[in-house]
């Protein structure tokens, strides 16, 4: 990747911060050239806190790249897939806006900066079984376009990059052909040059941009015929169902604990209520126990008296 040789200091954000640190070390980037902030882009408060921490530790950055995203197939006929859809939008759309949020005002006050949103060619036209991802990436394109207009004249540029297919664990699950497949390193180099140029919108690689424009121009009946029989994206039903089972188990455990506490409180109040209205004060509990457990005098018998006192 070309960032460190170009003189950039990196602020890296990831849920698994140790793996991100390993990546930076494996690239030979000097320790003073990077810093890792642990955050979950799907949690708005978490990613905003990471951005705020970056401002405090490293100052206002020159470039902010929001590239986190998830891709899971959905079937609107399945109730569980609606949860998948909500999680996709929370990560790909709200997470992107939350990533930009801490830096918009400081960059505008400084009069310079670049906000880079990573969309996808999947956001240009909808693909069967891929509705959640396509819709979220179309929203990224429109959101960045809107933000670019809002920040016009402030000195802050908004760059939208729509990648084609990049060889990552996310795309290796696809069950269909992926033309113009790129390595992550090749995409990173092209994306860096795009960000440097300040171009507002770019499709990488260029060949995929031509394909995307042709698909956009196709009439709907022809487009539907071209995609007929195309394999669907893997659905995330099992993942969501596992999370739902875990959520239900935690909820049930919490409810059991609350019911137990409520029963203890009710029993205590029932036992205590006769004494609460009594005018006569109660004797200390410890004294009462001592008096109840005081030994009774018995006739001394050889060999038994010592044993009885030991037992008491």
Walkthrough of the structure:
The chain is α/β, with parallel strands linked by helices. It has a domain at 62-240: 3-Layer(aba) Sandwich (Rossmann fold), CATH 3.40.50. It has helices at residues 17-26, 44-58, 79-110, 131-150, 184-197, 206-217, 220-226, 237-276, 285-292, 305-311, and strands spanning 10-14, 34-38, 63-66, 113-118, 156-163, 201-204. The strands form 2 sheets. The protein has a 4-stranded parallel sheet with strand order 3-4-5-6. Helix 5 links the parallel strand 5 and strand 6.
List the helices and strands and how they pair.
Blueprint: E1 10-14, H1 17-26, E2 34-38, H2 44-58, E3 63-66, H3 79-110, E4 113-118, H4 131-150, E5 156-163, H5 184-197, E6 201-204, H6 206-217, H7 220-226, H8 237-276, H9 285-292, H10 305-311
As a percent range, the share of helical residues equals 40-55%
Q: Mind describing the biggest β-sheet?
A: 4 strands, parallel
Low-confidence stretches: 296-312
Strand share of the residues?
5-15%
Give a short overview.
With 312 residues, the chain is α/β, with parallel strands linked by helices.
List keywords for this structure.
Rossmann fold, disordered C terminus, 10% strand, 312 residues, 6 strands, alpha/beta, two-stranded parallel ribbon, single chain, 53% helix
């Amino acid at each position: 990747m070309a960032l460190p040789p170009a003189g950039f200091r990196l602020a890296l954000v990831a849920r698994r911060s140790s793996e991100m640190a390993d990546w930076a070390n494996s690239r030979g980037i000097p320790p003073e050239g990077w810093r890792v902030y642990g955050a979950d882009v799907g949690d708005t408060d978490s990613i905003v806190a990471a951005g705020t921490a970056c401002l405090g530790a490293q100052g206002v950055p020159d470039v902010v790249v929001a590239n986190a995203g998830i891709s899971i197939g959905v079937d609107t006929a399945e109730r569980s897939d609606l949860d998948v859809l909500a999680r996709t939008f929370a990560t790909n759309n709200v997470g992107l806006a939350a990533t930009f949020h801490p830096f918009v005002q400081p960059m505008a006050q400084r009069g310079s900066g670049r906000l880079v949103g990573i969309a996808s060619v999947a956001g240009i036209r909808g693909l069967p079984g891929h509705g959640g991802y396509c819709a979220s990436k179309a929203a990224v394109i429109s959101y960045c376009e809107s933000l670019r207009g809002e920040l016009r004249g402030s000195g802050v540029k908004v760059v939208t990059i729509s990648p084609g297919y990049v060889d990552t664990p996310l795309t290796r699950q696809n069950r269909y052909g992926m033309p113009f497949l790129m390595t992550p390193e090749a995409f990173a180099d092209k994306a860096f040059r795009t960000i440097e140029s300040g171009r507002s919108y770019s499709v990488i690689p260029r060949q995929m941009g031509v394909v995307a424009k042709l698909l956009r121009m196709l009439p709907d009946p022809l487009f539907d015929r071209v995609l007929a029989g195309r394999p669907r994206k893997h659905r995330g039903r099992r993942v969501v169902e596992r999370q739902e089972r875990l959520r239900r188990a935690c909820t049930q455990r919490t409810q059991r604990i609350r019911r137990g506490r409520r029963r203890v409180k009710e029993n205590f109040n029932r036992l205590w209520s006769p004494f609460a209205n009594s005018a006569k004060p109660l004797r200390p509990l410890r004294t009462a126990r001592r008096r109840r457990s005081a030994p009774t005098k018995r006739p001394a018998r050889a060999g038994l008296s010592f044993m009885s006192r030991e037992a008491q």
